[in-house]
Amino acid sequence: IKHPLQNQWTLWFFKPDRAKGWEENLREVICFDTIEDFWSTHNHIKSASELSAGCDYSLFKAGIKPMWEDPRNKNGGRWLINLDKKQRSSELDNYWLEVILCLIGEAFEESSEDICGAVVNIRPKGDKLSIWTADCTNRDGIMKIGQKLKESLGITTRGSIVYEAHNDSMKKSGSVAKFRYTV
Ligand code: M7G
Q: Which domain holds residue 26?
């Protein structure tokens, strides 16, 4: 008997193709709802650090698309971790796995309800990890998730993780979005 997860999760893959629109470049890879199915997926796909520049993996609760426009995301935001280039070889894959295990294991307890998914962006200027939550005004839930995230990754630097509302990310023109919370 396989071990059921509390939620069903969908893994998405984004591969940049300039000839296509952003959403067209987003593909559903697989849906799983047991620990065993998670590991067999994880063990046969490329690790995040092996992806080419511009690609993303996203893991979202089934039924939520990994985009700002989804009804479950549109009032939400993300905890964002910016990694240094050198962390791709040292930290990226471990961090991403840890984030996934927190999500599918419902490690955020009562705040797990607020979780929509997580994204890893592979970028030449520095990779990014984020956890997307549903409501950018739910301060308590957001802070609990942020603290748990930092703790799980063993990040101790104060103020190193910022939460930004998708509404701000959407509007940002080149520069950094106005963040709302930090841990
Ligand atoms: P990114 O891939 O999140 O980060 O956004 P990057 O700047 O490090 O590459 C790059 C661009 O992709 C954005 O400026 C948008 O044009 C597009 N994009 C990203 N996201 C997450 C979305 C989304 O949720 N919806 C739409 N419509 N476009 C998006």
A: 4-182
ipTM for this model: 0.98
Q: Which residues contact 92 (CB under 8 A, 6 or more apart)?
A: 48, 49, 83, 120, 127, 129
Residue 35 Cα, ligand 1 centroid: separation in angstroms? 30
The string of pLDDT tens digits covering residues 105-157 is 999 999 999 999 999 999 999 999 999 999 999 999 999 999 999 999 999 98
CA of 169 to the centre of ligand 1 (A): 9
Query: What separation in Å is there between the alpha carbon of 13 and the centre of ligand 1?
Result: 13
Tokens standing for residue 109:
């307890």
Please tell me if the CB atom of residue 22 comes closer than 6 angstroms to any atom of ligand 1. yes
* CA distance between the termini of the chain: 40
User: How many separate domains does the chain show?
Assistant: 1
The CATH number that applies at residue 147 is 3.30.760.10
Answer yes or no: is the C-beta of 74 below 6 A from any ligand 1 atom: no
Half-sphere exposure in the Cβ direction for 75 (13 Å, CA) = 7
Nearest-CA residue for atom 21 of ligand 1: 67
